[in-house]
Design goal:
Layout: H1 5-10, E1 14-25, E2 31-42, E3 62-69, H2 84-94, E4 106-111, E5 125-129, E6 132-133, E7 138-139, E8 146-148, H3 151-160, H4 166-172
Parallel strand pairs: 3-4
Antiparallel strand pairs: 1-2, 2-3, 4-5, 5-8, 6-7
Length: 188
Amino acid sequence: MTTSPAARQAIPPITAATSAIVSWTHRRGGRAHCLLRLRMLSTSDAVPPPEPTANRAGRGRFATTAVVSELRNNPRGREITSDFAGLATTALTELIPPACPPETITWYAHHGPFSTYDHTDEPETLTRIDLRWDGQRYLDPDPTDHHLLPPGHADEVSSLLRLEPVEQVLAAWSWQGLSGLSTSSTSG
């Protein structure tokens, strides 16, 4: 990914960043897991958040973005997009700081070679998922709430959020709970 000098100057500072494996009980039964990367960016009128939408008006000085990456060893039938509201509600209770109003978080589903055991030359994708908050939990998104970003725009969002490659994030973690989460198709 390359970023133009003008775009680099417009990148707002990240005030908080974390990555975690989130596990939840999937709506179809059984456990599911994903990589979640959370970014809080300092914003101003001159630097809008990555994807402003109607339900995110009035964010104030910070924009919170969650990027959820589908991992290849997540059980079949328990994909992130088939229970995005359940996964987001779990992330809200387990990882996202209470200072982040749920209705202001911008959510993305992230897919790529790390999402499948099949060899693929397909590029990574980012899909903005517009979740609605009912005051207690996230509601299941409609198909019209899924917005696949064009490749150039996806690269810009990834650069803005300073997302490391999924393989690099997982390789940096060495604790036992990650054995089997490797995204390398040659690992055992």
